[in-house]
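for ur thesis appendix - Carboxylic ester hydrolase. copy paste whatever u need, i formatted it the way the template wanted (i think)
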Amino acid sequence: MPAGIVETRYGKVEGVIQKGIQIWRGIPYARPPLGPLRLRAPQSPQAWSGVRATKRFGPNSAQMDNAMSGFLGGTSTPPPSGEDCLYVNIWSPGADQQKRPVLVWIHGGAFVAGSGADPWYDGSSFARNGDVVVVTINYRLGMLGFLYLDELGGKEHEYVANCGLLDQIAALEWVRDNIENFGGDPENITLAGESAGAMSIGALLATPRARGLFQRAILESGAAHNVMSRHAATDVARSFIAHLGLAENQLADLETVSVARILEAQQLSVRNMLGGPVIDGQLLPGKPLEMIASGSASQVPLLIGTNRDEARLFSLFSGRQPKVNHTELERLFGTRGREVFASYLQARHDQSEINAWMDIVTDRTFRIPALRLAEKQLPHAPAIWVYRFDWPSPAFGGRLGACHALEIPFVWNSLDAEVAQLFIEESPAAPPIAETMHAAWIAFIRSGNPQTPQLPAWPCYQLSERPTMLFHEQNQLAPDPQGIERQHWENVL
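the 3d part is after this line
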């Protein structure tokens, strides 16, 4: 059934109604970044006449197709991808100008994969259960989104850094200017994301141009550490240009290189999540954590957390038997490396050295950065809530634990999505946890406080007790969980 026709600043759109929720898919928020617009800041979309049908998702951002990116993005069969990808999708209880709270979601995928169209980001449940307007977005990924060339070609090449972040800002500006006609409140926006989506938010909290475009933020398994220095980004750019077979004085040819060649060269150049936001001194003036500490995101409440066993997902998908990396232990902790590892091992009931190492990797990559962000924001916005997702997946013989991205279908109440079922296996314990987490996220989106009647008392985060909500079959509030392990990271990272 067609949804009502809605007027945007660029033309009228018509979506569909499914089970009482109005849905618009594939609304352009910027011009397709093709040809001369490749590696440039997003431009406002061209206006259209008549009514534009917005009943199908637009293409995903250009990306490789592989099993890991499929899971990080939420589907084992990703839709077609390409450069013409700058679209938003909207779920609303009604285009009636009721000024409902708005959730804007930035998808994860290691800055090289994912889509706002993935099935477990279906906003119907938030719209139905929370009277919330939901917006998911696509943004440029990989080298098309985060290539940094200033140190190679100078300013004369006219390419810009951080196109992916600029896309996210452009999408937020579009929401600000248009969402009221879809039933949302442009002054009550919660920006949320997972993994690279949350890491993007960590950067946006420090970006002056994003100031005021959202009023609160939810960061799942991502914080403010995952940014590149100009030096590191230049090294990646040199490798990328070389793999394309170009010289550094041939940057103009980047406009005409095929997307297939770009993705091939990108895969050879980008390692260990390098390829995300760059501290370019312009859009992102400095290290996000330092800028947040100085008040760049003052008065922005946060709901932030991680999963208990984040790293196990990457270990499973690597196809290699995990091993304790003693070199990395020494790099992180110096002469304390053995002592720290012994402490992690002692904290585990299973006394598994591999799982203890996975705990260290989880802390290094996700948990400690999340806690650091909460700590830096506390003086400027004391309304901060911290959680940990603890429910272990039964899949793969239990090897995943509460792995990276597993919380997504619980938060979205989308347990029936295909990829979610692969990891949840119709466990009877899952639906009640999803109901509880979904309600807590709705509460935060609506009021800035995730407290609900289903949960134990959940106070704001503070440094004396470090209260953390643990989501499991029996939810509980824990003071400073894994506190001994946390203390090992003081003056580290």
